[in-house]
């Protein structure tokens, strides 16, 4: 949910309005000290690329019908002026010289210009450049493809933010077969199962099911447990 300024809501009731969009880029750069990529700090001095902007595609929305059942921003394409070779990262005068386009963050704001010249804008899109910048055959235009953060989450590796559980006790069986559930829901995988310190083989000594279920634990069975 977004909070809209009262002046913006009032202006949108007028028959004649002046619309405005603003595109901000937080460039990604390599910090040799920490050996990590970083973004230019939000809230600081960030480049606004409106002067180079030719066109913004319609912002694509995707219905997340499998879980949240709501519309999510998916992607957008920016077409920008490249007559001065501004978007070639190898050009020493270019916008991305000494920066990394992939992973740089794009934010788009939209709203109205009020009668006193004040711009009232709200964020309508936030995402990252997810592929190489492409150019028209004459190199005079560049195209920047941006994936919304929601789309990036869809393809992200959950293991990067998961919690590993070790040494969880499955209990004591009857020496023939033992069913067991994990203590936590949303289990993505089992790395190893041991009985009396002996590593068991999946499919022969044990098997598992009910993985990646956020509402239920991981489930399995194991032979000769007890």
Low-confidence residue ranges: none
Number of strands: 14
- Main sheet overview: 9 strands, antiparallel
Succession of helices and strands: HEEEEEEEEEHEEEEE
List the helices and strands and how they pair.
Elements: H1 6-11, E1 18-31, E2 36-39, E3 53-56, E4 60-64, E5 70-81, E6 100-113, E7 119-129, E8 134-135, E9 141-148, H2 149-154, E10 177-185, E11 194-195, E12 198-199, E13 206-209, E14 217-223
Antiparallel strand pairs: 1-2, 1-6, 3-5, 4-5, 5-9, 6-7, 7-9, 8-9, 10-14, 11-12, 13-14
Summarize the structure in words.
- It is a single chain.
- By secondary structure, this protein is mostly beta strands.
- The protein has two domains: 6-153, Protein of unknown function DUF3599 (Thrombin, subunit H, Beta Barrel), CATH 2.40.10; 171-223, no CATH class.
- It is 5% helix and 43% strand.
- It contains two helices and 14 strands.
- The chain has helices spanning 6-11, 149-154, and strands spanning 18-31, 36-39, 53-56, 60-64, 70-81, 100-113, 119-129, 134-135, 141-148, 177-185, 194-195, 198-199, 206-209, 217-223.
- Strands 1, 2, 3, 4, 5, 6, 7, 8 and 9 form a nine-stranded antiparallel β-sheet that branches. A three-stranded antiparallel β-sheet has the order 10-14-13, with no helix packed on it.
- Strand 13 (206-209) and strand 14 form a beta hairpin.
- The model has no long low-confidence stretch (mean pLDDT 77).
In short:
This protein has 226 residues and is mostly beta strands. The protein is built from 2 helices and 14 strands, in the order H-E-E-E-E-E-E-E-E-E-H-E-E-E-E-E. Strands 1, 2, 3, 4, 5, 6, 7, 8 and 9 form a 9-stranded antiparallel sheet that branches.
